[in-house]
Each structure stands twice: as structure tokens, then as C-alpha cells.
Amino acid sequence: MAFRATVLTLYPEMFPGHLGHSLAGKAMERGQWSLDTLQIRDFATDKHRTVDDTPAGGGAGMVLKPDVLARAIDSTSENDSRPRLLMSPRGKPLTQERVRELASGDGVIIVCGRFEGVDQRVIDARELEEVSIGDYVLSGGEPAALTILDAIVRILPGVMGNDLSGLHESFEGGLLEHPHYTRPQVWEGREIPAILTSGNHGAIEKWRREQALQLTRERRPDLLEE
């Protein structure tokens, strides 16, 4: 069964974006995955198609209304076991492990937040899993949704030319990836490390592992702690 992604958004024209190109785009053309969008505003019931309101208790900005968003979610997820994700800066950080879990399923439903946030009641009532792609704030959940779909689609079976490519990347073994080199042998006076052209595959793997550990220790010691 092909991987099915459904995105709930106020800006459906932002999709598929870059996912319509390169490996992801070709995989979509082959039917290996599909992407549908739902315009949240279509589920508003007033003549102005209102989707937001002022925050209870006061404060700046606007909040996405629970009734409108719930109708949008219910229209696509009835009898649907796909995980329901809400892209949110306060969500649990996205990891490669979670990406692999999502890629092993039938698909995902992604809600793109806007404004100050989403009414907590619909998050609770519709069991939305809040996911963050980093410690920063975007203008909306659409770029984050494109990011998580990019991470998922590229590791779907048959999408990458060599499926082994996805097994030797940063975070796959809890470490950052080792450095890479290619021809020419010497560039601007800098040579490819001799070990990589030695033909000794055992020594090469050992070197790559050591380099990965060193980079992780320098740049992401938190990964080693985990």
C-alpha cells in the first residue's frame, strides 16, 4: 500500500512544494506515495469563513478555533488509523527514529497551525501529536510539514536509488555522520585521507566510526548522553 499523507492547512497552494521534484517527486509520479491537502477554511460555517478568534484571557494574536479544525480533522480521519500530527514549536522534537516509525506505517495526517496557536481542546479531543522540527518559531506549520514529509518520503522503500544510503546517515546510529570525500584526489592542496583509498574496508569502517564519534562529541554531545 502506498504511503498516504493528508495535510490540513490554510495555504494548500504551498504543497507539494519541493516534494514535487527530485526523488520525492518521481516517487509520487510512480505512485509510491500520495499527498492530499484540505483547506481548513472550507469547514467554517459563517459567511466570512472565520477560522480564528481572540485568545481567552486576553493577549496578542489569534487562536485557531476548535470547532472548525475538528470538522476538518473528522472529515479525513474517520475510521483512519494514521497518526495525527500537529506541527508546533512546543511539540516533542522530531527524531530520525520517529521518522522511521512514521515511514513504516500507512501514512500521516498533518495539521498546520497558524496564528498564536491551536485551541488546546481540539488538540486533546482529537489526540493530536505535537511535533517540533527545532527550537525556533515559523510563521506557520506548512514549512515544518514539508520538512517532516521530506524526511519520511526519502526513506520509503524504493525511493532512494540505494536503500543502504539511508542506513549510513547522521542520527541513524545515534551519531552524526562521518566526513565524505570524492575525486579529485588532491583539491587546493588538500588530499583525500589515505585510509579511504587503501582498499582496507575494515580499517575504513573503523576510521568512519571514529570520525563520527569525534564529530558527535564536538558538535552534539547530547546525543552521546542519550
UniProtKB/TrEMBL annotation:
Cellular component terms (Gene Ontology): cytosol
SUPFAM superfamilies found in the cross-reference section: alpha/beta knot
Record flagged with keyword Methyltransferase: yes
Compartments reported by the entry: Cytoplasm
Source species, domain of life: Bacteria
Entry GO MF terms: tRNA (guanine(37)-N1)-methyltransferase activity
Binding site for S-adenosyl-L-methionine: 113, 133-138
Catalytic activity: guanosine(37) in tRNA + S-adenosyl-L-methionine = N(1)-methylguanosine(37) in tRNA + S-adenosyl-L-homocysteine + H(+)
All residue ranges annotated as the tRNA methyltransferase TRMD/TRM10-type domain in the record: 4-225
Its EC number(s): 2.1.1.228
Gene3D superfamilies: 3.40.1280.10, tRNA(m1g37)methyltransferase, domain 2
Coiled coil: none
Full protein name: tRNA (guanine-N(1)-)-methyltransferase
Organism of origin: Rhizobium altiplani
Gene (name only): trmD
